[in-house]
Model the fold of this input.
Amino acid sequence: MSKAARHTNPLRQIVRTLAAVLAECAYAQRRMAELNTAPDRYMFDPASPPDTYAEFLYRTSGVLRREPAADARAKFR
Done:
């Protein structure tokens, strides 16, 4: 292994760690925005079921979370 290659490995690890931290921060920011704008947040009793179909439609009108594809979910098992 050359001298230059030995010095790039720790640098790559630092960059990967920094990228992972930034990705986690971006996810947390996006999730907080979803939670803050959810219609259930403004209900008196968000755990109670909706009384009417119109209320059901209002509660489900928030941002939908993107689900990963089936092959991406299988990688985590």
Notes: The chain has one domain: 3-74. Helices lie at 3-36, 53-59, 70-74.
